[in-house]
Design a protein that fits this description.
By secondary structure, this protein is mostly helical. The protein has 15 helices and no strands.
């Protein structure tokens, strides 16, 4: 009898494992699969326990230590020497971007080690079986985001390679560049600094796109829910309307739980990125004021301008779109006349309860708990 119980337990555990693997295979194409594919190449994929995770953890720790050292060295040579205002602004920009990338790397590692991303994926899948992501609109969003991700990674690598080549081809260098060439004691090791910088910038892009893709996935599920709610025909019968509205009430409650979980994952990271992006913009304007005297100078400064704009838009546009879609839910329900007319007491009570549940104006990705990222907030207009 004990042997039978053991066999049954083993069979049950194997079936549960197969179900988890099947669920993971279902979720994988929809949730930043390209980002984590690149993470595997860069040895920063720490999602699954095992030997590979230990190896990736060692590589990530080494890169984190080297990146911290390079930032400290750049800070030291920046503030121990006198520089021109334009040169100082560019140096501070480099330091801020490195700090921003290092913080992003820390958050990406933290989210993977503690399973926050996988938990969110499972919760979102349980709401509507990812019908919003599987819809034609969702697939279009996915393709567009993936193309943009690869483009930003390619652009990042291209810019760093071009700047490194420019440094090696120049005969004269600034005092800061000469001091920076000794970052690893031997000037011949300066390409290692370029490699670390490129690694950091790619990880920064990966972390931003995790935020974008996970927020967009929630937005697509919310939009699918709104579309279903607006297309719902409540005139098919009282019992049918009651049953469907109760299902909508349950799904909306699950979506609210998912959105609050999304907020808990990303709100601190979003706040830090916005805090760092603001001084980056100021230093960029300072550098442009001293350096841009022709169209060629403007072209050379475009990567700097683009990075600042991308950093700000990445942490604001996707959360603002999600907040706007959440705020439209009540309108979709109230405008569906088949729910309210003709008057049916039980249907009306359920619909009214659902309406009261939709009056949660704090749903969305907040900036450290005191402001939800919305389009009026970003554009500086009152809601």
């Amino acid at each position: 009898m004990e042997l039978d119980e053991v066999l049954i337990t083993m069979t049950g555990s194997n079936s549960n494992k197969k179900e988890q693997e099947a669920q993971t295979a279902l979720l994988e194409p929809h949730f930043a699969s390209n980002v984590f594919g690149l993470a595997r190449v860069m040895c920063i994929d720490l999602r699954r326990p095992g030997t590979l995770r230990i190896f990736n953890g060692v590589v990530t720790s080494v890169m984190f230590f080297l990146a911290t050292y390079t930032i400290g060295y750049n800070i030291r040579i920046t503030f121990l020497s006198r520089h021109l205002s334009a040169e100082l602004a560019s140096q501070l920009l480099i330091i801020l971007w490195a700090i921003q990338s290092l913080i992003s790397m820390g958050f990406l590692v933290y989210w993977q080690l503690y399973g926050h991303l996988s938990e969110f994926r499972t919760k979102l899948a349980l709401c509507q079986s990812l019908r919003g992501l599987s819809s034609p609109r969702g697939q279009k969003y996915e393709r567009r985001t993936n193309r943009f991700f690869y483009f930003t990674v390619f652009l990042t690598c291209s810019v760093t390679v071009v700047l490194a080549a420019k440094y090696h081809l120049e005969e004269k260098h600034t005092k800061f560049q000469e001091q920076q060439s000794y970052i690893f004691y031997y000037p011949t090791l300066r390409p290692l600094y370029t490699l670390i910088t490129t690694y950091l910038y790619i990880v920064f892009n990966m972390t931003l796109f995790v935020l974008i893709m996970y927020t967009n996935s929630t937005y697509l599920e919310m939009r699918y829910f709104n579309d279903q709610l607006s297309e719902f025909d409540g005139s098919c019968g009282t019992e049918h309307a009651k049953k469907e509205l109760l299902q909508y009430l349950e799904v909306y409650s699950d979506l609210c739980s998912v959105i609050r979980h999304l907020d808990q994952i990303f709100r601190l990271y979003t706040f830090i990125m916005i805090v760092i992006t603001v001084p980056s913009m100021i230093f960029t304007l300072m550098m442009m004021n001293h350096r841009i005297h022709s169209l060629i100078d403007l072209f050379l400064c475009m990567p700097t301008i683009g990075l600042c704009a991308f950093s700000f838009c990445a942490v604001t546009i996707a959360p603002a779109r999600l907040h706007d879609e959440i705020s439209r839910t009540k309108g979709h329900l109230c405008q569906n006349r088949s729910i309210w007319f003709p008057y049916r007491k039980e249907v009306y009570l359920i619909a009214n309860t659902l309406t009261s549940h939709m009056e949660q104006f704090d749903l969305g990705v907040s900036v450290w708990g005191f402001a939800v990222l919305s389009r009026p907030l970003i554009l500086g207009r009152p809601p």
